[in-house]
Amino acid sequence: MTDDHLTPAERYAAARRRAAEQATALHAFRELYDFELDPFQIESCRALEDGKGVLVAAPTGSGKTIVGEFAVHLALEQGRKCFYTTPIKALSNQKYTDLVKRYGPAKVGLLTGDNSVNSDAPVVVMTTEVLRNMLYAGSQTLSGLGYVVMDEVHYLSDRFRGAVWEEVIIHLPESVTLVSLSATVSNAEEFGDWLDTVRGDTEVIVSESRPVPLWQHVLAGRRIYDLFEEETDHGGRGVARREVNPDLLRLARMENSRTYNPRDRRRGKMVREADRERERRQRSRIWTPGRAEVVERLDAEGLLPAITFIFSRAGCESAVQQCLYAGLRLNDEEARHRVREIVEERTASIPSEDLHVLGYYEWLEGLERGIAAHHAGMLPTFKEVVEELFVQGLVKAVFATETLALGINMPARSVVLEKLVKWNGEQHADITPGEYTQLTGRAGRRGIDVEGHAVVLWQRGMDPGHLAGLAGTRTYPLRSSFKPSYNMAVNLVDQFGRHRSRELLETSFAQFQADRSVVGISRQVQRNEEGLEGYREGMTCHLGDFEEYARLRRDLKDRENELAKQGAAQRRAAAATALERLKPGDVIHVPTGKFAGLALVLDPGLPGGRSNGHRGLEYHDGPRPLVLTAERQVKRLASIDFPVPVEPVERMRIPRSFNPRSPQSRRDLASALRTKAGHLVPERHRKRRSEAVDDREIARLRKELRAHPCHGCDEREDHARWAERYHRLQRDTRQLERRIEGRTNTIARTFDRIVALLTELDYLRGDEVTEHGKRLARLYGELDLLASECLREGVWEGLGPADLASCVSALVYEARQSDDAVAPKLPSGQAKAALGEMVRIWGRLDGLEEDFRINQAEGVGQREPDMGFAWAVHQWASGKGLDEVLREAEMPAGDFVRWCKQVIDVLGQIAAAAPSEGSTVARNARKAVDGLLRGVVAYSSVG
Q1: Per mean pLDDT, which of 263-277, 515-529, 589-603 is the most reliable?
Q2: Each residue of 839-850: b (16+ CB within 10 Å) or e?
Q3: How far apart are CA 533 and CA 545, in angstroms?
Q4: How far apart are CA 805 and CA 31, in angstroms?
């Protein structure tokens, strides 16, 4: 309706609304963009401008970061600071570049573990760990902080780093407004309720709709099938119902149908050649296309650019090589020249002698053709170039591991999944609906593509129904991984004291979720207690205490059952012993079962490791003799066929020519068996006298039962039925109470145990943090306590920079796959001795943790130091060349750079925590940083 059709009053009201809207910060902010904001973005921004915190849960690529950028806009307008946190450095670098383009380098800073740019700026992009460390250190940089944006806040589910997110949320000053940006999670409301509890008024905005529709496909052979067949409910409601494509279901049935077997017979005849030929033709239409074939197919269908997720670094590199060998070229001559210009500009700082080592020329050839890999093993500079070229449309096919799905801004038209199974560090496991959503969320570029496409490659044994479940489920619950650590404990006690620290930890999302789960159990306990009261009335007896009488009956029954179990176990043991004595040629009577009767032992089938003079098949679940029955059947029997001991009644020679598969052989030997032993009657097994007859405990209980007043009650059995119900319900209720006890105050109990251990080591004295504790407070990392103890005992005193770097590497490095068979190469001399001393100290701490019930399996405690990187980092810090170091380390350049930077980070912490006087550690730690921060390690550029 236009203003012309409004009444004067309505026109006035509309004008007032427009004037009010134009006066808002949101109106000015919207002017910065050349597209209209989505409803969820507007709703989130309005809540922020009203002074509320927000939790925004929306699909990947939907534009959640607009809300974070509005927080930046508000902070600058109000003359306050905004910290924009991300989970990974690559995301921080990317967001820093975006904000610099908008607000200029003077207003934007960057703080990551290895980069510090303009850290006093009003807007600072940083990794979440940097902000956590600031909060504990009481950094002056926090003054004037008005907004904190936590991008990818669902990272708090990460079992290794998730606790950092909760620490920040809990410890941020009340005056700070929190903007939490999350992927679509199924329990956003629960997370929002917790944020409301710990941060104050928080608006939860959930958007399920993708900005670009996503189509799901399966690529089998030469054909791309739609996963779903859209059907409309014609019952009047017109609701779309998604059904699995029947063509795919037929394919699955055809492939999973029984394959041809030469022994198969159909109506007594061999399967006809024509049938086999038809089956071959059908199966020839189904195969898993090769990687180059997939790219060509996508190109022909107009579905490039595409990201293919391969859950293996080696697989990504191999895919690029396969495309190059296949002669794929996705770029024209002009695009090739543009690629080379960008690559040469971005890699100009890398010395030419290192280029060959880094595989530069093979990498460049792939880029010029529009093909690249993307994974954590690549040099950071190489990954950044791939990201830039992909966004510019100069790389059209990327083969990536799942790390690319975690927030990096690389949208594509299509996403391809090779398999629905990945290695999770322990085993090959199916990907979850949440992981599937995260990976396929990259498909569809907003403002470029009309629709996005997710393509899954056909694999043998694929179940289209399972795939449809993955694609159609939006269950991605946020689960807290919060656990107290040693560093956290001393920092909390230093700031708040033990009692207040305990209360703070009780406000964690982990405890919030545990307490919520207890609510339902508590209600069940209350209902059970009401039921117990009713049962108690039903078993009341006017002659005496029926509860006591029922207890005697239960004790008697339990004792009888116990003796019966003992007797059964003894009989089974005796039967197994008798079976183990059998030899080939023994004639026995099988006492029971389908094959009861006369039988000849062909093979005793002894348990693994026992011989009895005969080498036959070995079984690990007891003897399993192979016998020939008198009815000519050859069967492998089990212990269940021998409830009582069996003894040979005769011996027979088994002919050497006997073939158990030959009907004639079986007939002849069975006939001989009947002739030899058919007249023998098996000895009847005498039943043993029950032990219950002579058991004193049973006699005592029976006497007490007969003497009890309730024994003579006419309604005794009615009372007994009520008493049995009472007992069962009481047992169930106690189990529920134990579950409640195990879930309440779990975080606080772990904290108490950590504090007790730190008190034992003199890091804490009540609410006082000792000098040792203040040192521990400056050490962040998985092995914080081990690092502190090494400083305390002077393990690193007198070590040179390279030796110190090798020792520190053991605190941060963790092999991707443990290989206990191969001892890592170690530097000699003082470094080797110091590493040995570190392991000794870890062993002492490990024993202490066991004494104080601090469990590494629960994510708390100190893992064993890993020395797998000590030699490589020692060589690099000693000035050795990249070629030599990588060749000896057998490690990708990207991994080498990442581990070096983590060593640099911890060396910086040690330099700050080590004594400034009378110690060489701080000085040599700084020298080690200088020695490591060169060449490829220093290449990681900003923006």
Answers
A1: 589-603
A2: eebbeebbebbe
A3: 15
A4: 51
Burial of 655 (0-12, 13-18, 19+ CB in 10 A): exposed
Strand ranges of the sheet holding 371-374, from the earlier edge strand across to the other edge: 223-226, 214-220, 452-457, 414-417, 306-309, 397-400, 371-374
Structure tokens at 899: 């581990």
Q: How confident is the model at residue 468 (pLDDT cuts 50, 70, 90)?
A: confident
Q: What angle do CA 659, 664, 669 make, to 5 degrees?
A: 70
Q: ∠ CA 262-263-269 to the nearest 5 degrees?
A: 90
- As a whole number of angstroms, the distance between CA 33 and CA 46 comes to 17
Q: State both tokens at 772.
A: 């040792």
Tell me if residue 565 falls in helix, strand or coil.
Answer: helix
| Cβ-based neighbours of 370, under 8 Å, separated by 6 or more | 329, 330, 331, 335, 339, 394, 395, 396, 397
Residue 781, pLDDT above cutoff 80 = yes
pLDDT in tens, 570-592: 888 888 888 888 889 999 988 88
SS3 441: coil
pLDDT, mean of residues 464-468: 80
Closest CA to 380 of 899, 815, 897, 943: 897
Residue 636, SS3 per DSSP: strand
Return the number of other C-beta atoms located less than 10 Å from residue 531's C-beta.
16
Please confirm whether the linkage preceding 305 is cis (ω < 30° from 0).
yes
Cα separation, 33 vs 96, in Å, equals 18
Q: Are 224 and 217 in contact (CB under 8 A)?
A: yes
pLDDT tens digits for range 294-330: 999 898 888 889 999 998 888 898 999 999 998 889 9
Q: Output Rg (C-alpha) for the chain, integer angstroms.
A: 37
- Using alpha carbons, select from 463, 431, 388 the residue that is nearest to residue 94: 388
Give the DSSP H or E segment for 293.
Answer: helix 291-300
What are the start-end ranges of the E strands in 245-285? Answer: 265-266, 269-270
Residue linked to tokens 């089974």: 572
Cβ–Cβ under 8 Å, residues 169 and 44: no
Q: Report whether pLDDT(371) > 70.
A: yes
